[in-house]
Fold each of these.
Amino acid sequence: MPESPLTLTAAAAALRAGEVTSVELTEASIAAAQKADDALGVYLSRFDEQALRAAERADGELASGVDRGPLHGIPVGIKDIMPTVEGPTTSQSLVFDRNWGDGREGPVMARLRAAGAVITGKTTTMEFALGLPDPDKPFPLPRNPWNLSTWAGGSSSGSASGVAAGMFFAGLGTDTAGGIRMAAAFNGVSGLMPTFGRVPKSGCLPLGYSLDHIGMIGRSARDCADVLAAVAGRHESDPDSVDAPFALPDRLDFDLTGVRIGVARDGHFPAHGDPATATAFEAALAEFAAAGAELVEVALPYRAEVMTVHQVTMTSEGLAYHRPDMHARWFDYFAATRWMLAQGALVSGADYVQAQRVRRVAQDAVARLFDTVDLIVCPTASMGSPSYADLSGDITALGALIHTGYWDCIGNPVLAVPMGFTDSGLPLSLQIAAPAFGEAAAVRAGEAFQARTDWHLRVPGMDPGTDAQPPAPGAPPAADPADLAAVRALFAGATLSPSDGEVQAFALGYADVRAGVDALYAVPEARYADPALRFRADGRITDWRR
């Protein structure tokens, strides 16, 4: 069997040149899974036989002159929150109804099949695309192929680690708080979150109705663009979807002369981050400049407020979906999942509406910022993949090192690409954000960067690492009695029944939650903002005073 190409683009070219067959690509993918998946936890279920039959059909069609495009005959993994006809959808949860979807596939899956993709299996996720791994539940722990003692990121864990480990050429994922970009960053591959509405999200289990993006992971920016071209466009089943198909020229101009790139640093280099992030980021900026781009310092508008808006929106919308099951089966949920969803009970309906008003103001400000620059770059995270021992520590501190949620809330397209490594050999990543429906500009810059670097072509060595024991928890401080009483009342009103220890933990953070939400009411521009959730193509708000 010939050596398998690294990228989707290379594999598609090799197929058409007769250098490899789809069956050979699929057999190589299966062999990679048989070799490494027990250690990596990429798959929840594999469809080896069905994939080989699909590959045989693709080879027959290509031989007869039927060419469905770049994905024809290409192995692709699917995050296990999207139904496929080959097997059940689990959402990596004991709670999830295995009959969800009634055996039917959503529009994105239909479009992938129409494009001739070979579906290899369902990939691991965080439970319901939220939270952290839970070793006490009977599901694979998704590990990073660069160091097996570290996490593969989330929530699109298996879709990213599977691409990095050569088990498929592209993975379908979702991004509500960074699920595509964080996982791509930690695994040293590329991930694209499209503009909200460009890809229909119907047929995918919801987390945050106004935040969810279906997107794609591949080794290169071009790989991601090829998948987007196959799945973009309006579908009547998703009222948020937009009639905005996507296509790229066969080859983009790698000269970025005349492109103004905004550089966002504020808040992206916290003191407890890895200092290698700054070094890699400066080197990446030098590559953009060498390609002809003009670099301009910018600040992300309302950054702190948007992070609060994101938290209020995701937890409120998520709790709205999960509240009946959380009432009945609290402890069947992963610990981190129930922790994050239950925070939706700590805010009011008025808080949610105010959050959407501030969100509209921030979207408008970002749209106006893009009047002055063509793109914005910043780190995807201020660290490499955390170890499993680190995941048992301070989740709030970990969250402050991930810089993805802002863009989910704003809704613009963002491409994450590898930009280097930490001193311990873990991948680092940068994000390229574009104006609404400006995916082509982000991909062009990503391709220009990847034409000058080879970070995305590095292959992980499956370092076993060391499974350090998590630190023994110390005695938690006592919660303020008033906060404790307030939290108990709010959970009782939501008919949720956390343990006493969980209530204490929620109460310890309640003052911070309220302070963040109260700050949203202090944004004067929000007084005249319409809180409608639908993302507008230009990101702008209409103000009768102007």
Amino acid sequence: MIRLFRFLAPSSLSVLLVFGLVFLQSLSNLYLPTLLADIVDNGIVKGDTNYIWHTGGFMLLVTLGGTLAAIISSFFASRVAMGFGRRVRAKLFGHVQRFSLHEFDTIGTASLITRTSNDTVQIQQITIILLTIMIMAPMNIIGGIILAERQDAQLSWVLIGVMPILVIAILVILARAVPLFTIVQKKLDRLNLVLDEGLTGVRVIRAFDRNAHEQRRFDQANRDLTDTAIRVNRVVAAMMPVMMLVLNLATVAILWFGSIRIDSGQMQIGALIAFLQYAMQILFSLLMLSMLFIMLPRAQASAARINAVLRMKPEITDPRQPQRADSERGYVEFDHVTFRYPGAEEPALSDVSFRAGPGQVTAIIGGTGSGKSTLVNLIPRFYDVEAGSVKVDGVDVRAMTQEHVREKIGFVPQKAVLFSGTIAENIRYGKPDATDDEVRHAADVAQATEFIEQMPEGFNSVIAQGGTNISGGQKQRLSIARALVRKPEIYIFDDSFSALDFKTDAQLRAALKPEISDATVLIVAQRVSTVMDADQIIVLDEGHVAGIGTHRELMQSSEVYREIVYSQLAAEEVA
């Protein structure tokens, strides 16, 4: 919690204002019972109407001042808490953006969403409570005890006997509730995970008729969360009856012993009323503190989860003295590269070496799981190599900033990802300042203009979240256009033509040639027809290079490549 509250520094003035207003509100609360006692003893008992009006009017002013202080303090406390939550979410999102793919896999997307949303809300709520109660409750308790003792010292023994009972009840309930709060957040992670999988995979679920199975999974996760939340709420709910029982018993005891002292002439009626008011303030303040102590463990659990993300250091970081690669343009070199995924027994790539230059098309082909996508993911430094080096323009990518490396690359991922917004906005994602002509030209080259113009608003047509309102091939072509509009030094197409038919594939590759004539192109592909015309083909087999050369050379020298070619030619002939 202390680490998180460092974000409050710029709001320190608002925090001090809230504390000041809460202090004034507490003063008014403590002063009112004394005025009430004076009215009873000096006004009502003595029949002094003028005194009643004078003191009563002053009480109204004090009450109005306390009310205004409470309203203003609540307003600013809410603003501080909401601003704090905004900054925590921004800090989390900014920090997560620097994560490598390994960190994403470690925490999980569903858990990151929960920590950014629900956990942050818990912190916001406890911030409001801390700002308003942290000053008021202790001040009411301490001030109330002092002022109650001034009214009648003997009657204060009732409070001395009641307060330990309340403290013990609070500690017992907290001891049972605290461990459950952490479990609740984990159950919420699980629920979000099942929900996310159910929504994003709805087409697969329906295709395999697994609706009932997914419903059972969700019901199970929902039931687990509900049962745990009910257990927590049962424990917490026990606090209120205990508090009210003790509060009412204390009231009865005060009235009982106070009436005895009044009857013996040792206490005035106004003093008893004031003492009762102070006792109520003390006990209600303890009740407020108990609610704070109940919410604090859950907020602490949320804070720990948020801090766990903030403390996680990204594996891939920029060097302290980065180098720039400006002397050459478009050169990619793998020098005896070995890479192993974290926790894997065998490396995904072993001793891979090749070189690609501008004006050259390098194709990467191999069986499923041979390491094709892994290889191209090392160039933009999504992962760092275990041994060897990956160089861009003659400089090791680990010696450059990630921004400098990636601004040289136009990347088209294996899974086409589009964002909600218009088609033009999605294409401009590769180059925010691209003109309309550049956007249209990129779409022309990517063979996307035809279907774009058939849409109701053309380039201003809205793409739904995840691109669900267009086909897989259309999404793929827009992804290619997004990379083309950038005009980078290095193009990486990670199996980007698999969703295209043979005719569109051929037209796209023909249109690409003049656009990428002075750039380095790396194409990951499954189809032999896509790679046959490449300047060099790299054949991967279980993470090892099984051959490098042109199509003609590999047909003579690489058995793995021949098997791939013959299997696909046979399939085409059968088709």
